[in-house]
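Review session, final week

We close the course with one last complete record, chosen because it touches almost every idea we covered. It is Cytochrome P450, a protein from Lentithecium fluviatile CBS 122367 with 545 residues. Go through it on your own first, then we will talk.
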Amino acid sequence: MAGSYLAQQIADAAPLLTPYNIFLACVTYLAISIVGSFVRAPRYPISVPWVGHGKGWLSAFKNVFSGFSSSKAWVQTGYEKYSKSGKAFVLPSMLGAPAETVIPQSQMQWLLEQPDSVLSTAAAHYDTLQGDYSFVKPVILKDPYHEHVIHKNLARNLNAVVPELDDEIRHALDHLCGLDTEQFVKMDMLEGFMMKIIPIFTNRMLVGLPLCRNQDFLDTMLGYTMDVIRGFLLFALVPKLLHPIVGAVHSLGPKYHYWRSRKYTRPLVQKRLHDIRKKDAGDPEYKDWKEPNDFVTWSIRTAMAEGRQDELDPGRIAIRIMPLNFASIHTTAMTGQGVLIDVLSADPSVVEALREEAERIYKEEGNRWTKNGLSRMYRMDSAIRESQRHSAIALTFVSKKVMVKEGITTPEGVHLEYGTNVGCPWLPAANDPDIYEKPDEFDAFRYSREREEYETMNADEKSKVDALKLKQSGLVTTGNYHLPFGHGRHACPGRFFVAHELKMLFGHMLIHYDVRPLAERPKTMWVGRTMIPPKAVLEVRRRRV
Ligand code: HEM
């Protein structure tokens, strides 16, 4: 009965579905959505200049469309016109992405001093990464305990992580790049190489052996990572009013990938909890048992020490492995691809100088990678840092959201309403000739020349050099004008791991493989505020060492 009524309704409505009516409905919907998000968004202060088509209703419509092709140019204009004179500006909203107040570098200190209860990084990440839909359960990103665990444990456990990575890198490179000393092996640089190899290293640190080599598990982690990225791109294009509907469909992807991965991760966590509890209870069978040094152990130990019973639930820990895969995989893969593109498009002497350093240090350390040896790889350190600058992957970083109901006032006297999103310019700062000499050039050894020179000095000469300043030009040091890992107390806690991982990966690659230079540097594209990685092919051949 109900079915035939519905069929009748559909049949009656069919003649109305003309192209003109559909077009009219789309335009009306778009208009309502734009007005809706305009009304619900925080009011941006009149005193702050806007880039793009400016502020106001009509401009909002224009901004929505031209933002896709012009956001990069708008941030550049804003940086030159306002940031460099110490003034904030507003980057207009796009369909689903809110407007952002871009705070100049001169106010960075103030920005970083604000407590999380005033300016929250977690809340900004929750919004951009779609915490309601992309993380299996909203609580995972509302209370990002996994980030706290990484902040507390990763850097201090690197000594134990390095030999594990060393083992994994040998294994993965042999497997992916082969042992043939005659023929070059070709693969897509991002999808075929970086996105295949990075998940293995990441999971050696998160869940250890043997799971980090289980292809089905790795596929689910990669699938989940792509879910989050797809969500990030999709929600920026979809008007805010539609988010709950689109979100309900989108959230099925992350849930599916969790469902597929938990058959591996839950038993692992359950067993680890069991073993740790037995060990702590003094069970004689566990006298010689050593707890593995990975995220699962760090998570359990931290939750036990802090009395967080909720974070000892095996399901909860199993889910938390997923956002860390997301945080690690795509960022590291894109950074690694950037390094390969920059280095392989540079003069061949760059590859030779990097290879010489890698071979020398590897040999000095007894044909293995050590924390001490890696800390002396100044050239590789510099090439990666320089590539992060030269091939910057974001327009702004250091994102935060105003959490105080009455809003806050910046040192410039601008009042930011509750809910306002703020960030600092990165891409234009990275290319600013007042900050970096010849910023358009990829100068691989920009940061290592002075460090290498310092190493050759005698004690008297060394005493005249500001050694701390030299050290601060290292890959993991963030600064007002160096934001690829963010800055301040919420700067990326994974960067110490990344520095070791990429130095070992590229060092090992140069020692054991010939790598073909790129005939031409592939071009990078930006859509809205997002960088689209260029396509490039990696060609490697095992060297006869
Ligand atoms: C080259 C690789 C990476 C890059 C470029 C990168 C970049 C960043 C940036 C820019 C931020 C701050 C975002 C902001 O300013 O809004 C961040 C935060 C974070 N990253 Fe990374 N990341 C990388 C690798 C990793 C890895 C390997 C891990 C973990 C194992 C990780 C874990 C995190 C976490 C947990 C945060 C949030 C920190 C907080 O809010 O307190 N990242 N990352």
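Two points worth writing down before the exam:
The two ends are 79 Å apart (CA to CA).
Residues 314-345 form the longest helix (32 residues).
Good luck, everyone.
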